[in-house]
């Protein structure tokens, strides 16, 4: 009789447990979706904006009205100068470039840092030059495992983004 009562009690509680399991699976799926959204690859601009060492570059991209372009489908390869790289420019240069009247010059400099297509480090070392979005070509040299873009050293390569790749450089590239 005791066994029969336990069996009956277990049978009565099963639907409640099944409902709890279903709710648990839904909650688990929702957490997975939220985690997947959080891990969703970011665009070049979103990635740069999330890195403090690119704050000057991001300010320049905004001043040049290039956010929408560099957030677009791409793919793009961006040789991204750090804040320290911008600091190497003569005093007052960055401030002058950010002025509305110098937008055309700023855009020319920024687009000189962009190459159409997604060029990973393994591919960069195979070329001698690359045509930039600005129209001129940057020189690529490799010596003793160091990659130079014009006179800028690549200090970190292959920062993958949803619409291309960023290669971090230690100097600002200036078109000829």
Summarize the structure in words:
This protein is α+β, with helices and mostly antiparallel strands and 176 residues long. Helix content is 45%, strand content 22%. It contains eight helices and seven strands. It has a seven-stranded mixed sheet. Strand 5 and strand 6 form a beta hairpin. The N and C termini lie far apart (95 Å). The N terminus is likely disordered.
Topology:
Elements: H1 2-38, H2 44-49, H3 55-63, H4 67-70, E1 76-81, H5 83-87, H6 93-97, H7 103-111, E2 114-116, H8 121-124, E3 129-131, E4 137-143, E5 146-149, E6 152-161, E7 164-169
Parallel strand pairs: 1-7
Antiparallel strand pairs: 1-2, 3-4, 4-5, 5-6, 6-7
Tell me how many strands there are: 7
Please provide the ordered H/E string of secondary-structure elements.
HHHHEHHHEHEEEEE
The major β-sheet equals: 7 strands, mixed
Span between N and C termini?
Answer: 95 Å
Number of helices: 8
Order the strands across the largest sheet as they lie in space: 2-1-7-6-5-4-3
Q: Structural class, please?
A: alpha+beta
Q: What percent of residues adopt helix (DSSP H or I)?
A: 40-55%
Question: So what's the overall shape?
Answer: globular
Q: If you compute it from the alpha carbons, what radius of gyration comes out, rounded to the nearest whole angstrom?
A: 26 Å
- Stretches where pLDDT falls below 50 for ≥5 residues? 1-13, 32-37
In round numbers, the mean pLDDT is 84
Report the β-strand fraction as a percent range.
Answer: 15-25%
């Amino acid at each position: 009789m005791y066994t029969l009562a336990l069996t009956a009690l277990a049978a009565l509680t099963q639907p409640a447990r099944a409902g709890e399991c279903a709710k648990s699976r839904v909650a688990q799926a929702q957490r997975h979706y939220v985690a997947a959204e959080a891990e969703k690859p970011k665009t070049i601009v979103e990635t740069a904006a999330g890195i403090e060492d690119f704050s000057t570059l991001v300010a320049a991209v905004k001043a040049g009205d290039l956010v929408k372009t560099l957030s677009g489908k791409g793919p793009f390869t961006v040789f991204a100068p750090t804040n320290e790289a911008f600091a190497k420019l003569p005093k007052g240069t960055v401030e002058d470039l950010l002025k509305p009247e110098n937008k055309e010059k700023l855009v020319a400099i920024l687009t000189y840092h962009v190459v159409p297509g997604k060029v990973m480090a393994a591919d960069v070392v195979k070329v001698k030059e690359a045509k930039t979005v600005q129209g001129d070509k940057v020189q690529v040299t490799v010596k003793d495992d160091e990659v130079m873009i014009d006179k800028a050293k690549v200090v970190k390569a292959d920062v993958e983004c949803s619409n291309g790749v960023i290669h971090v450089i230690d100097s600002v590239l200036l078109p000829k």
